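Researcher: Here's the sequence for the chain we discussed earlier.
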Amino acid sequence: MKNNTRLKLFPALLALALGVTPAGRAADWLVDPSSFHATVTTNAAANEIALENGLVRRVFKLSPAAATVGLDNLMTGESVLRSVRPEAQVTLAGKKFDVGGLTGQPVQNYLSPEWLAQMKANPAAFQFTGMSLGPTVERFPWKPRTEWISLPVAWPPAGIALTLNFAAPAGLEGVTAEVHYELYDGIPVMAKWVVLHNRSGRTLTLDAFKSEILAVDETAPKVDRGAPREWRVMGTTNLPPKNYTEAPREYIDRFTQLFVVTDYAMGGDMEAMKDNPGVRWVHDPLYRTGIQYYGQFKPCLLECTPSVGPGLALTNGADWQSFRAFELLHDSTEQERRGLAERKMWRVLAPWTQENPIYMHGRTAKPADVKLAVDQCAAAGFEMNILTFGSGFNVENTNTGYVAELKELADYAAARHVALGGYDLLASRGVPEAAQAISQLTGQPAGEKDGARFGASPCLATDWGAEHFRRIRNLYATAGLTVLENDGSYPGDFCAATNHSGHLGYADSQWRQWEDIRDLYRWCRGNGIYLTVPDWHFLNGSSKTAMGYVENNWSLPRAEQEIIERQNIYDGTWEKTPSMGWMFVPLTQYHGGGAAATIEPLKEHLPHYETRLADLFGAGVMASYRGPRLFDTPETEAVVKRWVDFYKAHRAILDSDIIHLRRPDGRDWDGLLHVNPALPECGLAVIYNPLEEPIQRQIKLPLYYTGLTDRAVVRWEDGRTEAVALARDYSVMLTVKVPARGRVWFAVGK
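Model: Thanks. This is the structure I predict for it:
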């Protein structure tokens, strides 16, 4: 590899970046990723090594010190890195240590290759001692439920792994560090994490760490200094670093080329950027020639670090591993393409999110009622029954008779190909006083205003927490339950107690509680237990979170719920695949609204029930159908089964990504287009009409992401076929007729 190859442009990809359709469709990784393989290249003359896959390249200089000296977006031909920083930073026993890195860059606005020869190693930093290469390795075991997966998945993701080894400087002998990277095939995503080994003969406190530090080009607008949102709600007396910003991550994310998440994800907002406390976009204090104006700055320094801590005591002989950061390079500013890239990342890094079982929320755990619900699930084609909140299901009940009863029910359900499990509330619940999370501000049990995200909640790093998780594991393993709905989950609350068994104090409390919930979820996935969690725990095993809705919406009149439901799906699927978000159908009353809001008696509201089924199955989105039953007459059963059969007949394309056609507004048509260039049925559109009269519309259908290039065959739901030619922008114009308050669907193929 020569130095100038770092900036080499791929003509077809550059054309795409400029908005020109590439002649070779294989050049677009979102259409055909098969040609993009992760490799390692070396440049012995420059003492450099590079990870690259045709989409992204990260270049490391190995002498006089190991440091990232290039981060190149090969899809656009742009260099992202503007300044060299350490590979990581750790604070041990109160002292900060860089891990690798080079010093002496004249200015921080850009990085000239000529400067690298004059830059020096930092003698006080951890020094590079060697490296190793290997394949990617699974983060934890996963037992997939293949009957719920319609598209190919791989675990671990294919790619290549690089480890850089470092030794501590004088005065810290016996401590070593590893900086790990993985680059994956077919996607511009790289993972990074840090490992420490303490062989110093003494206990060292790991006060803080930064597992990633990247000084990148300025693409975001100026923002104000201040405390980020989670800092303001965590009830701390600590002040945030002076280079932090109050601007939300989700705002900054709109403008950056890098989309960065970690498996240290929590917060309860059910959005990737909001539930992402380990990622910071901050002011670069070394960047004195960057744009600043009266306290405002452009956030162009990426740091992956916890808000506080971890504050861990690393005893002699201990090994410690950081959370993992995952970095996606975007090749576009267009909303749909950026969303497709992020959704592809979740499919690759968390393939269990592609399990998409059809399920109901059983309202009662009484054995006769459970068997009725299971029988109806089997008859209608549903695949799971979650015994919901208020049902009587109790993971803390260790009575042998109760456990035996659940095992008999789980066996009954499994014999009918229905998974059975239940609901557990973790946050915002009553626990013994000794197990409550304590506010650093007051020294008392934390509330919403002083450290508890959802009000009074347990600290998981306690005897109570350990016993609660032990009971979950024991109940599920003994009874053979295969789905856990873990509500509240762990939203990231800190705890200032110093007498809890699982943590030392405030600084390590979030880290230790995160380890507890992470380990539970990973245990579940290794044992084939499906997880629904209203938080962003996807990288640790969760398969679903809420698609995005206000629970009181399901107390509104039925007709209003129909359009709001489609709005929630339309909005939620910008960042989630259809299988990653759940919706809600109140067969019986939920919060309120009475008879006007609920569907029972089902036979009396069959047109509305069918609309809800069509909304959901047409989007490939599963809902919690909450009630004692799915149907009450043969006619109702036939309607339910018709839409279940529709979903199962088109499961692969309905589980595929969504192109957003028109957002529901109740004033005209709305619709979605599923696309997947790897399938024969590479597109399926559903068009809805909320109006009281039939409509006929000319609808432009963008087919670029179906992989079709010149012609398509449209197969309408009534059996008609229509061959159409694609325009230069890969679209077709179709005349679509939709009945009053109805819908129409059609498939697209070759």
